[in-house]
């Protein structure tokens, strides 16, 4: 049996970025942090957390964050990744803004950051070769934002 390293605590969070309330599942948390399910213990409440914490003091807590900034502890497991499609609700991962600025995709009208924003996929450009912005996502601006799929997580 692989050693457990993380306590995964799914739940609701109100985003500081858009003010919406979202449920972040255990699989989404593992994907956001880039950890394998075999390294995790998934809990459902305060009592489970308290009991587990008394036995395993060195486990790292993974829970929903209001600021959308999730520390990466490894590579996302392939079994969690899924092909997104038109109409899917998504969250923009931490780091997307920096990547977009670095690659020349940032538009001043997007504000300071779109990391942690949620929205809906409105167009799929994955069939276009050499296109870094594979999906158009409506995040509530006056225009859709083109985003590389590596910066999106399906909700």
Rounded to an integer, what's the Rg over CA atoms? 17 Å
- Low-pLDDT stretches: 76-81
The rough form would be described as elongated
Largest sheet: 5 strands, antiparallel
N-end to C-end Cα span: 30 Å
Category by helix and strand content? alpha+beta
Across the major sheet, the strand order is: 9-8-7-6-10
The total of helices stands at: 3
Q: Give the beta-strand count.
A: 10
Q: Note the beta-strand portion.
A: 15-25%
Element order, helices and strands?
EEEHEHEEHEEEE
Mean pLDDT: 80
Helix content: 10-25%
Write the layout of secondary structure elements.
Blueprint: E1 6-8, E2 11-14, E3 21-24, H1 26-33, E4 40-42, H2 46-55, E5 60-62, E6 89-92, H3 96-102, E7 118-124, E8 135-138, E9 145-147, E10 152-154
Parallel strand pairs: 1-4, 1-5
Antiparallel strand pairs: 2-3, 6-7, 6-10, 7-8, 8-9
